[in-house]
Amino acid sequence: MSAPDRHIDPITGQPAAIRYVDVRKSFKDNHVLRGVNLMVPQGRVTFIIGRSGTGKSVTLKHIMGLLRPDAGKIFLGDTDLDTLNPREMRALRVRFGMVFQHAALFDSMNVFDNVAFPLREHTRKSHAEVEQRVMELLAQVGLSDARDRLPSDLSGGMTKRVGLARALVREPEFLLYDEPTSGLDPVLAAAMDQLILDTQRANPQLTSLIISHDMSAVFRIADKVAFLADGVVLHEGTADYFRTVADPLVRQFVTGSLDGPMVV
Ligand SMILES: Nc1ncnc2c1ncn2[C@@H]1O[C@H](COP(=O)(O)OP(=O)(O)O)[C@@H](O)[C@H]1O
Ligand SMILES: [Mg+2]
């Protein structure tokens, strides 16, 4: 038997933790993904950037099986997602943490219980183990003192931190973020970026995939960046590559300028 293919991401030199191969997805006449090819390197921070409505969230949802491609394949390591039955798919989702744009906390639960929820629901950890793990994470996101507060009593930045703690509580291999800093002021956004970076450093095996149109975050923390436009990954590279790439479409996006080829 031959050794499994090793797919090495050329941008980072890391093995591909997630791989999109010519993924296509349409909603009726709306051809959103038109052949996405992308490697997400293991143990690194990858950004997918692009304008609103270009299919960034759709791309992300395919990884967890929340959407299925019309054509093409998605691999997690060597596993073709298409070959998994529903039970295997559920088991696979445990390996993911997800940080949504809106943290979607349970309004009636305090911070501690929100973070503890996935542990209580899906594991048989003892009361003491849950307590220890949740407090460890609240400390990591700077919310040790907020354990008894209700979501209605939290600022936007704190809410996102609770969402991050909850996503991490079951020690995922993959952390997926959909616009983690949207709605935050620039200072809070920078704090969130730092927290994402600290989280990555504290968990070197973690593979982080972040959807964003916040270029300052990209330049601060991205190991790899993929620019999605017209349903394909039009450019990929390091953050430095995006500082200098000449394509006027990318330049306009990076600088947020009204002048350029993009239709506003
Ligand atoms: N479940 C769905 N059903 C129909 N259309 C959808 C669905 N999800 C996304 N779309 C459409 O796909 C396109 C890309 O959406 P999305 O991935 O959310 O964009 P963004 O890059 O802003 O995250 C949009 O035109 C959106 O309306
Ligand atoms: Mg989106």
The CATH topology of the largest domain is given as: Rossmann fold
- Along the chain, the helix and strand elements come as EEEHEEHEHHHEHEHEEHH
The CATH level-2 architecture of the largest domain is identified as 3-Layer(aba) Sandwich
Number of domains: 2
Structural class: alpha/beta
Ligands, deduplicated: adenosine-5'-diphosphate, magnesium ion
Cα gyration radius (Å)? 19 Å
Number of helices: 9
Ends apart, CA distance between termini = 54 Å
- Structure summary, number of beta strands: 10
CATH superfamily of the largest domain: P-loop containing nucleotide triphosphate hydrolases
Query: Spans of 5+ residues with little confidence (pLDDT < 50)?
Result: none
Helix content: 25-40%
- Largest sheet: spatial strand order: 6-7-8-3-9-10
Strand content: 15-25%
Shape: globular
The CATH class label of the largest domain is Alpha Beta
The average pLDDT is: 91
Query: Describe the biggest sheet?
Result: 6 strands, mixed
